[in-house]
Amino acid sequence: MRGSKDAGQYRCGEAMMWASIVSTECAALPGLRRNRVVGGNEASPNHWSSVGSLQTISSTYICGGSIITPNWVVTAAHCLDSIHDDADDYQVVFGDHNQDPSSGREVIARVSRIIKHEHYGSDGPGFRNDIALLKLSQPVQFTRYIQPACLPTVNNVFTSSDECLILGWGETKGTRESNVLLRELRLDIIPNTNCSAMWSKYPHPGARVLPFHICVGVVGSETCNGDSGGHVFCKKGDQWVTVGVSSWAVGDCDTPEFPAVYSRITSYLSWIRHIIQQDTTTTPGAAFG
Question: Which part of the chain is the Peptidase S1 domain (predicted)?
Fold first, then answer.
């Protein structure tokens, strides 16, 4: 999702089923605990222009997320559990790479609404429907450093033959300390049947892989506790599309025998569309300022 002065380079496929709501222009690239990237490499600064850092208004990092329209961000529902109750307590920082010094490219957007999936289950098997939308108080102006994520189409299928990666401000060796630099890690999509069989060996009732999940992993690297809400991206044609929202993984880091589990975006396209359409109808112009 490398930035470019030519906005046409961010154009997603016209086949998106809700092109009138979600912009067809998007960024293009050349116990159980929640997830954080372990291993991988530092991402090129501002290479992934849809990635945002969900924080408290005091700038404490909580989770990752991806912007999909000027007013809406997709993250994990559990990121909003038992920390702060009010949308006013949150902000999302875009155009960020190093979370310590400012580059001057960052944009801080306050959150005005939190919408968790209505059937989100924080404690049930599989931690069902772990996805949320954040409405921003003001639309974000897209620049070469900030661009919306490309969403998949409902018919997109992702397999181990696809080129995929995860992103996050994560631990590098399971230290339980955040990495201030955005990191990326190449990985494989693991079929749900295989993923389910692998997780069946884990002694926790919540460790169930369901059809609305997608699993990722590579030998020798894994995700670890913390980088929840971050996305896995896969390449389709000349676009990198967001495929899943980080949900859960084993508490110990670097455990490839237990793949990381993400909420599968294609399972929630209708839900995302419904929420944004409903908001646009009740508050004219809300989605696009």
Answer: 37-277
**86 is a catalytic site residue:** no
Q: Is 88 a catalytic residue?
A: no
Q: Are residues 144 and 196 in the same domain?
A: no
Is 78 catalytic? The answer is: yes
How far is it, in rounded angstroms, from Cα 265 to Cα 270? Answer: 10
- Per-residue pLDDT, averaged over 65-79, amounts to 94
- The answer on 242 and 206 residing in a single domain is yes
List 78, 97, 117, 231, catalytic entry:
78
Catalytic residue among 49, 228, 247, 263: 228
| Closest CA relative to residue 68, chosen from 270, 227, 272 | 272
Q: Which of 130, 233, 254 is nearest to 187 (CA)?
A: 233
pLDDT reported for residue 284: 43
Per annotation, catalytic residue among 49, 50, 97, 130 = 130
- Residue 28: inside a domain: no
How do residues 80-106 score in pLDDT, each as one tens digit? 886 666 899 999 999 865 556 566 778
Q: Is residue 254 part of a domain?
A: yes
**Residue 54: strand pairing partners:** 63, 92
- pLDDT above 90: residue 129: yes
- Give the global pTM: 0.81
* Comparison of pLDDT for 183 and 34, the residue scoring more: 183
Indicate the number of domains in the chain.
2
Q: Output DSSP code: residue 81.
A: S
Q: Are both 189 and 127 inside the same structural domain? A: no
Task: Give yes or no for a contact between 164 and 235, defined as CB atoms under 8 angstroms apart.
Answer: yes
